[in-house]
Amino acid sequence: MAVLQDFRNNVKPNWCPGCGDYAVQAALQQAAVKLGLEPHQLAIVCGIGCSGRLSGYVYAYGMHTTHGRALPFAQGLKLANPELNVIACGGDGDGMAIGLGHTYHSIRRNVNITYVLMDNHVYGLTKGQTSPRSDLGFKTKTTPTGNIETPVATLEMALSAEASFVAQGFSTQLQELTDLIVAAVKHPGFSLVNVFSPCVTFNKVNTYDWFKERLVDISTFADYDRHDKGKVLQCILEHEGLLTGLLYEDKNKKSYEEVSGLASDNQMQAVRKFTTAEFNKLLEDFR
Amino acid sequence: MQRNEITWQAGGQQGEGLESLGAILARTLSHQGYDLYGFRQFSSRIKGGHTNYKIRISAQPVGTINKECDLLVALDQDTLSNEALTVGENGIILAEKALAANFSGKTEILAVPFADIAKQNGTIMQKNIVALGCTAALFGLGEECFELQLRKEFGKKGEEAVAANVAVFKAGMEFIRTEAPALLGRLVLPKIAEKAPKLFLLGNEAMAFGALSAGARFMAAYPITPASEVMEYMVKKVKEFGGQMLQAEDEIAACTMTIGASYGGARAFTATSGPGFSLMAEAIGLAAMTETPLVIVHSQRGGPSTGLPTKHEQSDLFAAIYNTHGDTAKIVLSPSTVEEAFYDTFEAFNLAEEYQCPVIVLADLQLSLATQTMAVPEYERLSIRRGKLADGTKLPPIKSPEYFPRYSLATDDGVSMRVLPGTPNGICLGTGLEHDESGRPSEAKAMRRQQTEKRLRKMQTFLTAYSKALYIDAPYEEADILLIGMTATRSCIAEATAALREEGQKINHVQIRLLSPFPAKELTPYLQKAKKIIVIEHNATAQLANLVRMNIEGCPHLESILQYDGDIMYPEELVTRCKEVL
Q1: How far, in Å, CA of B485 to CA of B7, rounded?
Q2: Looking at residue B3, what is its pLDDT?
Q3: Helix ranges, B214-273 (H)
Q4: What are the structural domains of chain A?
Q5: Which residues of A touch B262 (CB under 8 A)?
Q6: What angle do CA A36, A83, B387 make, to 5 degrees?
Q7: Interface contact A78-B264, CB threshold 8 A
Q8: Kind and range of the H or E run holding A19
Q9: Cβ neighbours of B86 (radius 10 Å)
């Protein structure tokens, strides 16, 4: 059995001290241990940005792809290599700006991967520009008079795309985040884990304290039903999306693998030449 | 009178069944043992708009169509206005009655009430089947020859549909026999000495079949003319072999998914045309930098931007080689016949794994969409080679923080050992950033230099080993002219070459089948032994000629024959244009 140390490497992250992404790294490593995985059974696929460097900071197979494209890469990888546990990671620039189309289509397609989205409402690696998750009025280098564009509603969007698993965590709540990632990986379909992961350098508004004051854990609601989409959506709207926990789960939606038949017949790993009988049969189509 | 070959053409409005008319006729003739080359002109719309289908029928192999035709079936005015002049001596036009009345040309024309015959014997939708019956009568073929393909086409709609179409077909035959007996025997098809087993298919189908035969079990793609048939073939066939064709949300996703699947161990590919290929530029760079195998079938159409979606062009040559930023090591193959389309696509998967790089199979609309007779691929010639792929059972144990040296510099040929994720003791990283031997990001100067050189060295290794860079027909030590082309112009140039040789000219012909890395060493001797060199290509900026100049030191003067009007090149026209250059 692998232990936490097995998922650590000797690489020092290039994140600022205090960055929320350290907690996501730790939660991923702890989740891998809790899931009983060996490092080689896990692949972390990242996009570009501060969060994108995460694949290099966990001892597992890691691929640091292009900006916004972690999800297409991760889906191709999972379909070709179904035994692998595939976790895609990225920031709000990656998943809600340049890669938003892929995020939406990945959710509706429902390939059995997990997407951990680190949301800090700002562009960090390019040193402080607005993000599609920035609040209205948020001042950055590219919005000196304040952001004038409505932020993307991550959770509502996911539900509209017929998500089968939507969770939200917060970097200071490490235990909850770990448990959410464990549940997400176990979920047989696409699982979204949105994490509020504050940027301590370029976002002086949406700070740790800002989130702490506003976030509500859904376990505090007596009658929360994560299988009732209407009520979940209503709750999200009432709290402007500032909730944590496993917000929505649809156990009936079948994964892409099941619907496509790949779950019962996937021969992508077996690269081989046709037998003469197979080859000759295919020739018949063209005679 | 018996002819060596016959060219048949039919034109009408889209939606009038021209495509199925051409398909039933072609498949029937193919079954009779003829060599065929069919090409359809069409517009980027579904119903309405002129379309025509031309089929060249021969007892010998044919690889293109000619301008001239012998039998023209005109269902609309456009056909008559645009194509009547292409009907050769002794040729015949069959035109819808009302159109024929106003025809003032010199060609022999027969008014056929296609619509009336169709309505009397079935429905107005069967004008195409009337035309098929007329054609059969003129070609001297009995209805029994057509029954199989009529059944194939309409059988899925039930026996009644088959019978109804056979009746309309017979009415068409009967019309010619009773109303125009004088025409019978004019266009009798050449005799076939022996029926060799052959295939008849689209170039796109040949490439898709090549991919499937190479073990491709994952395809992600986005529909686009003229490449969609590759997806359509894969979706029909790949499930049977435990694979998947996925229609992605865009070409960026399609290409990136393909790379993900390939990284995961599958043989994966995508297919597209210019607009989609532009979107794939980013992903191609990722595959090159992470040294992940990637195969892209790119069938060119008119550009830039949406350009001419349904028309032929060869103007993405530079895009295929250079569309990605940075010093990108990639292979660009350019098949020039339907057989090469099959074998090159098959081989692309071997090369992508052996050299761990993107491989572009650069086709063009003519090659992709022409329906062509193809020699049966030789099973024995096909072998799967996966290159340096680690055997997971033989890796020495490693433990955090040790990594498998995925990008090891200890390699003479530039290729390092690849390992599939999921393999115990193979853990390594990958990144689009410059990286060290384990795949960790690195900006160290020496590492940057060495990794860059390693990636580029693979192309030198490949170029030295590759033997199919050129198609050569160069019998003359001292040629008057060397003709150079790429992709689907192969047969057109070959026919022009033969015609000019008959006139006493010493013509050599080289078709370039590998565009990147460029086979300069192999091409140079042919340039040196020609008095004049003409590069023939379908674009306005002489991209191939410029590629030759760029790669060949002291390159001799090159003349260009360029065409960029969307039409394909015809051998007769090429002969004329060659003479203009001389």
Answers
A1: 25
A2: 62
A3: 228-237, 251-263
A4: 4-286 (3.40.50.970)
A5: 76, 80
A6: 125
A7: yes
A8: none
A9: 18
pTM tops 0.90: yes
What would the CATH number be for the domain defined by B470-581?
A: 3.40.50.920
Query: B388-393 long-range CB contacts below 8 Å, 24 or more apart?
Result: B388/B354, B388/B356, B388/B415, B388/B416, B388/B417, B388/B418, B389/B353, B389/B417, B389/B418, B389/B419, B389/B420, B390/B417, B390/B418, B390/B419, B390/B420, B390/B423, B390/B426, B392/B419, B392/B420, B392/B423, B392/B424, B392/B425, B392/B426
Distance, in Å, from the CA atom of B382 to the CA atom of A274, rounded to the nearest integer, reads 10
Name which of B404, B429, B440 to mutate to probe chain A: the one with the most chain A Cβ atoms within 10 A of its Cβ.
Answer: B429
Phi, psi of A110 (to 5 degrees): 70, 40
| Interchain CB distance below 8 Å, A268 and B220 | no
**Which DSSP string corresponds to B94-131?**
EEEHHHHHT--SSSEEEEE-HHHHHHHHS-GGGHHHHH
Residue A284: phi and psi, rounded to 5, are -60, -30
B254 burial (CB, 10 Å; 0-12 / 13-18 / 19+) is: buried
What is the pLDDT at residue B49? Answer: 85
C-alpha dihedral sign at A236, A240, A246, A252: positive
Amino acid at site B29: L
- Summarize pLDDT for A114-133 with one digit per residue, the tens: 999 999 999 999 999 999 99
Nearest to B267 among A72, A271, A279 (CB): A271
Domains B201-381 and B470-581 share a fold: yes
Q: Do the Cβ atoms of B242 and A270 come within 8 Å?
A: yes
Nearest CA of chain B to the CA of A170: how many Å?
Answer: 27
What is the full DSSP assignment across B445-466?
HHHHHHHHHHHHHHHHHHHHH-
Contacts of A286 in chain B (CB under 8 A): 199-201, 205, 209, 374
Closest CB to B257 among A73, A262, A279: A73
CATH superfamily ID and name for B201-381 = Thiamin diphosphate (ThDP)-binding fold, Pyr/PP domains (3.40.50.970)
In terms of DSSP H, where are the helices of B365-514?
365-369, 445-465, 490-502
**Of A50, A58, A52, A56, which is closest to residue A15 (Cα–Cα)?**
A50
- Domain ranges in chain B? 5-183, 201-381, 388-468, 470-581
What is the distance between the alpha carbons of residues B233 and B224, in angstroms, rounded to a whole number?
14
Please state which CATH number belongs to domain B5-183: 3.40.920.10
Residues of A in contact with B430 (CB under 8 A): 62-64
How far does the CA of residue B315 sit from the closest CA of chain A (Å)?
28
Average pLDDT of every residue of chain B: 95
The two structure tokens encoding residue A85: 């546990």
Tokens linked to A150:
């409505």
pLDDT at B89: 86
Site from B245, B427, B442 to mutate, A interface, most A CB atoms within 10 angstroms = B427
Pairing of strands B530-537, B479-486: parallel
Q: Which amino acid is at B126?
A: Q
Within 8 A by CB and 6+ apart from A79, the residues are A111, A256, A257, A262, A266, A268, B218, B244, B246, B257, B261, B264, B266
What are the tens digits of pLDDT across the range B75-84? 999 999 999 9
**Is there a contact between A191 and A164 (Cβ–Cβ < 8 Å)?**
yes
* Placement of tokens 């056929």 in the chain: B112
Question: B7 vs B55, B61, B422, CA distance in Å?
Answer: 6, 14, 57
Kindly give the pairing relationship between strand B514-516 and strand B244-247: unpaired
Rounded CA-CA distance B396/B2 in Å is: 73
Q: pLDDT digits over B337-349, tens only?
A: 999 999 999 999 9
Give the burial class of B226: count Cβ atoms within 10 A of its Cβ; 0-12 exposed, 13-18 middle, 19 or more buried. buried
Pairing assessment for the beta strands B371-375 and B358-364 based on DSSP bridges:
unpaired
- pLDDT for B476-489, tens place per residue? 999 999 999 999 99
The radius of gyration of chain A's CA atoms, rounded to the nearest angstrom, is 20
